[in-house]
Design brief:
heterotrimer; A mainly alpha; B mainly alpha; C alpha/beta; B: mainly alpha; ABC transporter involved in vitamin B12 uptake, BtuC; 12 helices; globular; C: alpha/beta; 6-stranded mixed sheet; 4-stranded antiparallel sheet; 38% helix
Chain lengths: 350, 293, 229
């Protein structure tokens, strides 16, 4: 249990944040314990956890999926639909949503994993796209189409609703991030976890050892997807509604960026990437409407008022000057190269 | 019968668009191993240049105005694609994930830039009147822009094949798609071919962009991205690096989408394309043409 | 001065330290054989000379450094390469494979078609449909189109029938009169036939340098270093 000492200490420290009325200028607009800041921190923690769940798939098992966001969206939409359209109890909805995520992951994973490399990536993208189309089509008027819909807050536990309870949501997000961290850590260090890492490095060798990579890949896929689905439920609590933003391809790409910027295949990398990206995304929005920017000449001001422009340029700069992620200099390039060009580049030695 | 004919022609028109976009993507991935997420941006850049030039040529009659603007758009789009390769991709030679990421970053940045300057609403483009009208064949009223799309795609297909089979650079590209390292081991600097392939891809995508403005009579910041996802699916179904495979896949996808959208229900066409991808990959993981990287 | 001079060459493939400080010279003219058991690093050595893998150390071609030079430029200085798996382009025709390999102003088609008349006959055939032996001829032929100072040849007789092996040995003999050859080969009969010098590798290091015939006559040494005989 010693190796959990530091992470546990961090979690405890973070748990005290809602009690701290400290101001950190530039980083946050208001004090630490205000609802606005707590909500931002909660989002950061949530996406940190989600990014780590994605890294389980990508960084540890070497599976490049463009469809991870689908399970997150499932978490958001199914829980929202169960409570709002079918008027189910909160805890029943949560259990049902987790079950749906689990079953869907098994079915889609079983099909997608029949191919590997770029084909696998494209199939996952296609399934995610199908989910997006489904949400837009608004079958039975459940998903609310393009606009989405607000969740029926009568179904939610009272201590999660309302601005005064933001700190509870913060704690839930913190618990989620901690939960994902513990689960991923435990999974990666278990014996299937070692097989996953072996698969990432050299799938052929795993087969030669008499193991079936397919089963292990499926395990990793299902675990990662269920973690994402739970994250979706937390997101629903934070947002209070469902909308199609979480079903878009750009959202999935965002996950990839979080993970790569933070550094894949390491304990902290993806989580830090998720936290930093979410933070930057929100604060850039504030920055671009701030006084400093609006007093710039128009040539500079216009592009800077679009946060995505800043982020896009930032990504390019990071990729050029800080490759391999912030926490770990990469064998990332080599790994993805192998994923994209299966069968692996021949390195025969004679 | 006339509905079927209409659906078939419009399906082929759609397939023509997909082919134009997917052919560049296929060559770029086949030769360079780069998943070019910025491909849709080439469409956007061409489209907006076209709109911009057109708006500056106010008094000129529609047909020459459109043609000049289209030409300007194609030139700018192609140059932009070549510059993308030279400035962003080439320095990252051998680092595939970083190359993919810069294309994502570029796509985000350019879309945001266009939105910042001209807003997110669609802008109207003036197209020759004839393209908005229909021609009646066997009782089917077929919009004329479809004919242009199909004809253009066929011309581009032949041009690409001629390039690949009859020029030295085409030879290098065909060999490089198979084994890039061996091409360098023959003393050839493949990197020049990379820029060329990006430029070709940009040109083909730009042509698709021009045709799309004929079809929709508007330009908007998101049009490139939405078309590119289906183009990706076409590329994978057709087999990476194969122009003929891409052509077949584009036709099939375009037709399936049209038929399913009409005969089944609206929106189901898109879903059935996804289903098609799944089926093809499971039955033939190397794509229709069997040439998987 | 040696044509090719290699000093303290190191290559890492992934975590594996495949070449651990290789040093040897290739004298001009004739065939130098690179020998060793499977997996000792012979192919990696050739690939390192070609710049196809990351390498550290000193590599000089006729006194000029080529360690820091990219592959295509190394080739343009007169280095021909016949890789272990032939690596002909299967989607291209025989003729196209040859045309792609042209570098000089006057490629020597006469020489190539003289050595390999079948290549002329099968010009329009897709290289992927050729037999193993024919592909080998194509791989050697395209390297001979140009005026090369040195030819790096990797196991040209691998997988060929005895008749074809003799054929390849005959070709190598003729080629060695025209240019210097560094030959990786497991077939000691061929080595005995054509090689002048021999360099033996064992797990990433050079363990013997000397005249080929002398080495091959020493049965115990052969057995120890190559595990044959």
């Amino acid at each position: 249990m010693k190796r959990f000492a530091i992470p546990a200490a961090i979690v405890v420290a973070l748990a005290f944040v809602p009690r701290l009325s400290i101001d950190i200028p530039y980083l946050f607009q208001e004090g630490l314990n205000t609802p606005g800041t707590l909500e931002l921190l909660a989002l950061c923690l949530l996406f940190g956890g989600l990014a780590l769940s994605y890294d389980l798939l990508f960084g540890f098992t070497g599976l490049l999926s463009f469809g991870h966001a689908l399970y997150f969206a499932v978490g958001v939409y199914i829980a929202a639909i169960a409570m709002t359209r079918w008027h189910w109890d909160f805890w029943v909805s949560v259990a049902f949503t987790a079950l749906v995520g689990f079953l869907l992951a098994i079915v889609l994973g079983a099909v997608s994993l029949r191919v590997a490399g770029i084909a696998f990536a494209m199939v996952t993208l296609a399934f995610a796209q199908a989910g997006s189309i489904l949400a837009l089509k608004n079958p039975y008027k459940w998903t609310g189409g393009e606009e989405g819909f607000g969740v029926d807050y009568h179904q939610l536990p009272t201590w999660t609703v309302g601005i005064l309870n933001t700190k509870h949501l913060y704690w839930i997000a913190l618990a989620y991030a901690a939960f994902v961290f513990v689960v991923v850590r435990w999974a990666v260090n278990s014996s299937p976890g070692h097989v996953w890492q072996a698969i990432r490095e050299n799938e052929l060798r795993v087969q030669v050892l008499g193991l079936k990579p397919y089963t292990y890949k499926l395990m990793s896929y299902v675990l990662a997807s269920v973690l994402a689905t739970i994250g979706g439920i937390v997101y629903l609590l934070l947002l209070g509604g469902a909308n199609t933003d979480v079903t878009t391809a750009s959202f999935t790409l965002t996950l990839l960026l979080m993970v790569v910027i933070g550094g894949t295949g390491s304990r902290w990398g993806a989580m830090i990437g998720g936290i930093l990206y979410t933070f930057a995304n929100h604060r850039l929005g504030d920055l671009s409407s701030s006084h400093a920017v609006s007093s710039l000449p128009e040539v500079l001001r216009t592009p800077l008022q679009q946060p995505l422009f800043i982020l896009g340029v930032l990504f390019i700069l990071v990729v050029f000057f800080v490759p391999g992620g912030l926490t770990r200099i990469g064998q990332v390039g080599v790994r993805l190269d192998r994923i994209l060009r299966r069968p692996a580049v021949q390195e025969e030695v004679t | 019968m006339s509905t079927f004919l209409l659906l078939t022609i419009t399906g082929l028109g759609l397939g023509a668009m997909y082919f134009l976009i997917a052919s560049g993507l296929s060559l770029i991935y086949g030769l360079m191993g780069v998943l070019n997420f910025a491909h849709g941006i080439f469409i956007t850049v061409t489209g907006y240049t076209l709109w911009f030039v057109e708006s500056k040529l106010g008094d000129v009659p529609v047909l020459p105005r459109f043609l000049i603007a289209a030409l300007a758009g194609l030139v700018v789009g192609t140059v932009f694609a070549a510059l993308t390769e030279l400035v962003l991709i080439r320095p990252l030679y051998g680092r595939h994930i970083e190359q993919v990421l810069v294309t994502v970053g570029l796509a985000l940045a350019v879309t945001a830039l266009v939105t910042a300057i001209w807003g997110s609403d669609a802008r109207v483009v003036a197209a020759p009147a004839w393209t908005g009208q229909t021609t009646t064949i066997f009782g089917a009223h077929i919009p004329n822009d479809r004919w242009i799309e199909i004809a253009t795609a066929v011309i581009v297909l032949f041009a690409l094949e001629a390039f690949l089979r009859r020029t030295r650079y085409g030879l290098i590209v065909r060999a490089g798609v198979e084994n890039r390292a061996m091409v360098t081991a023959l003393g050839i600097d493949v990197r020049k071919s990379f820029t060329l392939v990006f430029a070709i891809g940009g040109l083909a995508a730009g042509i698709a962009g021009v045709l799309y403005t004929l079809y929709s009579t508007t330009v908007d910041p998101q049009q490139g991205t939405s078309l590119v996802i289906f183009a990706f699916i076409v590329v994978v179904i057709g087999g990476l690096g194969s122009i003929r495979g891409t052509a077949w896949a584009a036709i099939i996808v375009g037709l399936v989408q049209q038929y399913a959208n009409y005969y089944a229900s609206s929106g189901l066409g898109d879903l059935s394309v996804v289903l098609l991808l799944g089926i093809v990959l499971i039955a033939r993981p190397r794509g229709l043409s069997g040439s998987f990287a | 001065m040696a044509l090719l001079s290699i000093q303290d060459l190191h290559v890492y493939l992934g975590e594996s330290h495949v070449l651990q400080g290789i040093s040897f010279d290739v004298a001009e003219g004739g065939v130098t054989a690179l020998l060793g058991r499977n997996g000792v690093g012979k192919t990696t050595t050739l690939r390192a000379l070609m710049g196809l893998v990351d390498r550290r150390g000193t590599i000089e071609l006729a006194g000029d450094d080529i360690q820091s030079v990219p592959t295509h430029k190394i080739v343009r200085r007169g280095v021909g390469y016949v890789p272990e798996d032939r690596d002909v382009f299967s989607a291209l025709t025989v003729e196209e494979n040859l045309r792609l390999a042209e570098r000089d102003a006057e490629p020597q088609y006469d020489l190539v078609y003289d050595l390999f008349p079948e290549l002329r006959e099968r010009g329009k055939q897709a290289a992927g449909t050729l037999s193993g032996g024919q592909q080998q001829m194509l791989a050697i032929g395209r390297a001979l189109l140009n005026d090369n100072r040195v030819l790096l040849v990797d196991e040209p007789t691998k997988g060929l029938s005895p008749l074809l092996v003799t054929e390849v040995a005959r070709v190598l003999e003729r080629v060695s009169e025209l240019t210097t050859v560094l030959l990786v080969e497991q077939n000691l009969g061929v080595v005995n036939h054509v090689a002048r010098d021999a360099v033996v590798l064992d797990t990433g290091r050079v363990v013997h340098i000397g005249p080929a015939k002398e080495l091959l006559a020493d049965k115990p040494m052969i057995h120890r270093m190559l595990g044959v005989g």
